[in-house]
Design brief:
The complex is a heterodimer of chains A (about 270) and B (about 250). Chain A has about 270 residues and is mainly alpha-helical. Chain A is built from 12 helices and no strands. Chain A has a single domain, classed as MetI-like (MetI-like fold, Orthogonal Bundle), CATH 1.10.3720. Helices cover about 80% and strands about 0% of the residues of chain A. The radius of gyration of chain A is 26 Å and the shape is extended. Chain B is an all-alpha fold. The longest helix of chain B is centred in the C-terminal third of the chain and has 40 residues. In chain B, about 40% of the residues are buried. The mean pLDDT of chain B is about 85. The chains are: A mainly alpha (about 270), B mainly alpha (about 250).
Chain lengths: ~270, ~250
């Protein structure tokens, strides 16, 4: 039973919770007002969405039969992602050995490589594609080089961690019997990290597929560019067909990548 | 040997499709360096007027992450096997999977077509974009809760709402916060890119400066963007390590 006569102040924890909660609400409202963002607009102006849906449906799947150019664009996107993954992955692989503390003895080299990797990661891909489009020209080649760049940034760091986290036992045993650093890398470190390298490469392909789509819009070519053009000239039925195809494509790539990764790493290694 | 040959053929074929060749790369690199040289020095007078758009970009990312986390939490609950019935779980997981396959930029293109240019589309597309990643992560986190603690709360006679609040939400709060912070990092980058397609902010300034060949101004925008991404990354990492520490202590 509650005792109504007992008047106590709310506990410190309760007050803290209320303060945090009301601060968050106030801040959200303030930023919404600053930006002119009205979440209710999504419901009050919903007729625009209905109009757009009316314009988009049904998707024009005829596009894939009548227009061979679309298939070329799809091929471009896949090739872009593939080459970006392969070249980016290989360069990242080499750089990772230069950045890991157990394979690279020189402190200065390690720091330089690490710094360049983190610099590559910080630069947004928008800037990189803009620079490559100026340097190489519009088209999938610029998109592919952007993917190489971003893959090096993210996977260089990842591989460095993988190399640094290996079991030290085998390397130490080999050093003890007088093996050189190259021999240790070749016979102790490489076999251990190879499955993880392949698995990460597959994962990277999955990511690059999505990125390749987005890059197309900024001049990277491929299906992203086709989609952007279709939207610009208000051919919404074509655009929706392309989006449907994209969803299927990305889902297939994701499933395939997951399946192969499971195979490479052994069952149960990937959840 | 066969896989290596197959790989080499695939690489060659892909290079043909992309129009990638070493000569193009060489001449392109030279042009690229010349271009980078043209960007310097940055246009210092542009900095004050670029700070406003940079602030817009941050706000879009914050609001997108905030609303996205709330909505994803709903999706996460509906997709967790220990909370939702089977049919709802199947349906929600399917929706999450489909969302994950659509890049945010495509969502934005459709929103721009419906609502016009402006930060509104940016916030909404980031919000929707959160569902694919956070929804799945939240659902997995909720499914990993020890069923004993939920049973214990049920045994005390708690209502369905109380079970969800105390038994399901409370234990995953550290996970929610740290995933949301991680997503915020991504959203800052996305917000820059979405800006160029029509959400406004520093991304638009960057894109416009490059298209108008005003490279010095582009360099200023680039410096601000780099600072933005770098600071948010550090901040999010710091906060996440703090959340992890507190979560571990509890």
């Amino acid at each position: 039973m509650k005792q109504p006569s007992l008047y106590t102040l709310p506990s410190v924890r309760y007050r803290r919770k209320v303060t945090v909660f009301s601060l968050i609400v106030l801040l959200t409202v303030a930023t919404c007002i600053y930006l002119g963002f009205d979440p209710l607009m999504l419901f009050t102006e919903f007729h625009y969405v209905v109009d757009l849906a009316g314009n988009m449906l049904p998707p024009n799947f005829e596009l894939f039969r009548s227009n061979g150019h679309v298939w070329w664009a799809i091929l471009e996107t896949i090739s872009m992602a593939f080459l970006g993954t392969i070249y980016g992955g290989l360069i990242a692989f080499v750089l990772a050995f230069l950045a890991a503390s157990n394979t690279m003895p020189a402190w200065a080299v390690r720091q330089v490589v690490r710094f360049s990797l983190s610099l590559m990661r910080v630069i947004p891909s928008l800037v990189i594609i803009l620079v490559f489009v100026v340097a190489i020209g519009l088209g999938p080649f610029a998109g592919m080089l952007t993917l190489v760049w971003t893959t090096i940034g993210t996977f260089g760091q990842l591989f460095t961690q993988v190399i640094e986290n290996i079991e030290p036992g085998p390397s130490e045993a080999m050093y003890a019997i007088g093996a050189s650093r190259t021999q240790v890398i070749r016979y102790a470190i490489l076999p251990e990290i190879f499955p993880s390298f392949i698995a990460n490469l597959l994962y990277s392909f999955d990511i690059n597929m999505r990125a390749a789509l987005a890059l197309g819009i900024f001049g990277g070519g491929g299906i992203g560019f086709e989609l952007y053009m279709a939207m610009r000239v208000l051919r919404y039925k074509d655009a929706l067909a392309l989006v449907c195809f994209t969803i299927v494509l990305i889902t297939i790539v994701e499933k395939l990548s997951d399946h192969l990764r499971k195979k490479v790493l052994g069952a149960g290694a990937l959840k | 040997m066969l896989p290596v040959i197959a790989l080499a053929i695939a690489v060659e074929g892909a290079a043909l499709v992309c129009g990638a060749n070493i000569r193009g790369l060489n001449s392109g690199l030279i042009r690229g360096f010349v271009f980078l040289g043209q960007m310097f020095p940055p246009d210092w007078s542009a900095f004050p007027e670029l700070l406003g758009p940079a602030f817009d970009t941050i706000i879009i990312a914050i609001l997108g992450t905030f609303f996205g986390t709330i909505i994803s939490l709903g999706f996460g609950l509906a997709a967790a096997s220990n909370v939702a019935p089977r049919w709802l779980r199947r349906l929600t997981r399917g929706m999450i999977r489909i969302e994950r396959a659509i890049p945010e930029i495509v969502i934005l293109l459709f929103l721009v077509a419906a609502f016009g240019l402006g930060p509104f589309g940016g916030v909404i597309s980031l919000t929707i974009g959160c569902i694919g990643m956070l929804g799945k992560l939240f659902a997995d986190a909720i499914e990993e809760i020890d069923p004993v603690s939920i049973e214990a709360i049920e045994a005390l006679g708690a209502s369905k709402f109380q079970v969800i609040y105390y038994g399901v939400l409370q234990p995953v709060i550290p996970a929610i916060i740290s995933f949301a912070l991680f997503r915020f990092e991504l959203n800052i980058r996305l917000s820059v890119i979405l800006g160029a397609v029509g959400a406004g902010g520093i991304g638009l300034e960057l894109y416009r400066a490059f298209s108008l060949l005003d490279y010095n101004r582009g360099c200023s925008a680039l410096i601000i963007t780099l600072a933005l991404v770098f600071i948010t990354e550090r901040l999010s990492e710091y906060l996440r390590s703090k959340v992890r520490l507190e979560g571990a202590l509890r």
